[in-house]
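Subject line: Sequence and fold of a protein, written as structure tokens
Area: Proteins and the way their chains fold up in space.
Start of record: The labelled sequence and token lines come straight after this line.
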Amino acid sequence: MRGGCDPACMSERHGMSAYASERPTSLLTIAELARLLGIGRTTVYRLVNTGELRAVRVGERLRFRPEDVDAYLERGSP
């Protein structure tokens, strides 16, 4: 995957166990999601733009439901 890391790579390289232990219960901002997954904000935008990660709009801002993040991570699991 050019310029980023697929979900399986994130689990190995970016400590997805940290995400699992800190799993939020409310909507996440782009900055919060990037921090939790250990990726850059640009990568989060790319995942949304390619349809790999589902986001919801709250006004003009993007937010992420924890269950959508879980689904994204599960799709990349071996």
User: Anything to note?
Assistant: The two ends are 16 Å apart (CA to CA). Residues 66-75 form the longest helix (10 residues).
